[in-house]
Design brief:
single chain; mainly alpha; 4 helices; flat
């Protein structure tokens, strides 16, 4: 899965979402991206609260690659 995502130039998370998107309508796809984005933002906030800037940045980087 990592190799397939890398070949497409996207994150593993983005790749998984694209696989899901093939079987979901556009409204469902938008909801999936929204939920994944919210989850990543919550994780980033949690890392910031702990003072772990590197991990927070990684979460935001994954979020960026979802788009």
């Amino acid at each position: 899965m990592r190799n397939a995502a890398k070949a497409q130039g996207i994150s593993v998370e983005g790749y998984v979402l694209s696989l899901i998107a093939e079987s979901v309508d556009s409204t469902g796809l938008a909801e999936s991206y929204w939920e994944a984005s919210q989850n990543l933002m919550e994780q980033a906030r949690g890392e910031l609260v702990k003072g772990n800037l590197r991990q927070a940045g990684k979460r935001l980087g994954v979020l960026w690659h979802l788009h």
